[in-house]
């Protein structure tokens, strides 16, 4: 669980160091802007921007029942972030599994990717798709009644 917060923490600490240097050189406005940029980067790479993760077994069970795709992801992954942002509100209609929080999810991704933890891996109807186009993922969502 802590691994998913390493990159956001590095962004916040790095931003603090940069802002301190800018304050010491007499640029408080630039320092404030730098802090804002680094905090936004930290938020974007944190687990907070993703829908609540569930376990791999539960996600696969739910996906089999409701036909929704299962997305295996990890924080800090720019491709996962791209998928999440491009899906917009539709991201809530998928089942998300954080492979850094769920060992069964990491094992499922390794099994689908020749031993590699390549994410995002989206499972649709039991078939894994590595880093698919967000428009394709959206098309795989079951139609709402």
Automatic annotation (TrEMBL):
Signal peptide annotation: none
Keywords of this entry: Membrane, Transmembrane, Transmembrane helix
Domain of life: Bacteria
Residue span(s) of domain Glutaredoxin: 70-127
UniProt cross-references to InterPro entries, sorted A to Z: Glutaredoxin, Thioredoxin-like_sf
Keyword Transmembrane carried by entry: yes
Transmembrane segments: 31-50
Protein name: Membrane protein
